[in-house]
Amino acid sequence: MKTPNSTGKEKEAEDQTEVKKGPVFLFAAGIFLLFIIFLFIPVFTVQFLSLFLFLLLLGSKAYSEYLIRNLKIIRFDCELRSFRNEWVQIEIAAENRGILPAFMLALSDSPGMLPVFRNNKSLFTLNGRSRLLWTWQGLCTHRGIFMLGPANIRCADPLGLFPFQLKTSQTCKLFVYPCACFASVKAPQGIPLGALISPNPLFEDLTRSRSLREYQPGDEIRRINWKATARQYGGTFRFMINEYEAAFSYPLVIFLNLSPQEYPLKNRELYLERVIETAAALCLMAGRDRQELGIIFYTSSRADGLTLIESGPLTITPILERLAGLERYYESGQTNKAGETLNSNETTSSSSTYTEGAAHKLHNSAERMLEAGKFLPYGTRLIYTGSKLSNEDYILINSLKTYRFSLEFFIIDEQVLSPLVPGNSPLYQIKEQGYEII
Fold it and tell me: Which domains are seen in the chain, by residue range?
């Protein structure tokens, strides 16, 4: 999945190439020594050999400098996007703008923090006035944001006397999204006129025209398109009827619980990664239905632990980038500091600390979900994804139904859970592994 931000020429214009050459002292010493021999040893054979070597050194040095000025590295992609457990392909072009060929040219690219990669080094000959497209692959075994590059070229003159290295400053940012899992949950009925596609013609959106068709008995007169009817020339006269897309509005908001304290220590890393994959699967489901989407990240009980990111019905890229940028902060018990929040509105407040042994104490995530839910639009479909909550938490969250919310819970837990929580809201149990969430 590629997202180039600029063309190759624009990227090349901004590039700064670092050149590393061999030691200049040996070249200067060789030239000086051969010149002294040519002048002060009046032997024809010695003078001929010294002059020949003198010209050979100058020609090799000129050849090497010529290649340095004419070899270019072009990286086509500024950003790449992929899902975890998928191979990503990186494309780089090596260009020789001169007329002299470059022999035994070694091109390599740094894989950054990618643990698995292949064919990131290549050896070839590049003729004059030619370009070579070179690709290598990396396996996205972990979710995160990686920097690929810089690429470099190692080459020399035909005799190999003056090797050099060209290192470009171009890099590529690789977003590795969570694993592309499958989640399909039937949407509850919503209010008419919106962005979520529906097969029910009762939800036709009069603001989104789809096509025209001929009049059929039973059609309403107010749906006749008089302009299209009047434009008919010759033949049989027919009334033309407007058809609209069937859609209804039901904003989807995901509350993602990433607080390490609310997960069991034994499987904490596994469970947190799995709920992140669940949130990504729900985002992909909303994207397929062109549904308005928002996600609330709850990372800790601190004041900066709640972040809301909103996304339009046609793009979920900001949310997936934020999911990719979540560090494994739960390994050290610290809050996440990586990744930029795109199109975000942050809501903060204080909250008490949850004690696992106290049954009367509510989870921090339940309190923050209740607080954030009061500011969501009317008719929102609110989905909780995270660890198991207590009955008191479910009762507290179900009070949001007074705002005409639809509540659903995606819970990861070792025990088999009831399909309903107190308050008759549906509960879906997340599978611990696999490409199917529930």
Answer: 2-32+42-177 (2.60.40.10), 191-249 (no CATH), 252-429 (3.40.50)
